Amino acid sequence: MADEEQNETTEEQTEPTPEEPVAEEQAPETPAEEPVAEEEAPAEEPAVEEPAAEAEAGEPVAEEEVAPAQPAPKPKRKRLPRSERHKHSKPKRERPAERRPIVRLPKPEHERGRRQERRGVVVSSAMDKTIVVKVDTVKAHRRYKKVVRRSATFHAHDEQNAAKVGDLVRIVETRPLSKTKNWRLAEVLEAAK
After folding, report:
1. 117 pairs with which residues across the strands?
2. How many CB atoms neighbour CB 131 within 10 A?
């Protein structure tokens, strides 16, 4: 009986699977090479196609069996530490024979730099110690050379409440005094008529 069982198992191994004849039909080979191809095919193909056959049957397939069929993700390049990275060659700088002392530049005449000045007309003086000044600018357009008139309003600090609506005044840039006030009244150039 043991011999019969062994014969049956060898017959099962030698019997072609339904998928093998399809492969043979697609690629016709010479009769001398057929036995060699039949011997190699059962060893290679069942390992690859068994998981697919199991998946079709609805049986659960282990991830280990499916993993070889999927392409492995490309490994990321490992970051090299800074000491091992490619170094750019820098030209060597000539060192002077003796070091010169650091010389400080003299202080400028005006302490806080040059402040911007604007001339405009007082539009509102309703707030306490604050005036709203409208400054008109007339410029030629860069490309079309048409004269373009623009106006901007500035809130300026007026400590003595000297300016009235309609006065021509000069305002000077200053530190932020409030959320909208960065200017202060320098002088009243013309009183309103």
Report:
1. 172
2. 28
Predicted model pTM: 0.43
Q: Which two tokens stand for residue 167?
A: 């006065």
3-state SS, residue 16: coil
Superfamily of domain 117-190, CATH level 4: Nucleic acid-binding proteins (2.40.50.140)
DSSP string, 44-104: HHHHHHHHHHHHHHT----HHHHGGGSPPPPPPPPPPPGGGS-----PPPPPPSSPPPP-P
**The token pair that represents 90 in the structure block:** 């820098």
Domains of the chain by residue range: 35-67, 117-190
Kindly report, residue by residue over 141-170, the tens digit of the pLDDT. Answer: 999 999 999 999 999 999 999 999 999 999
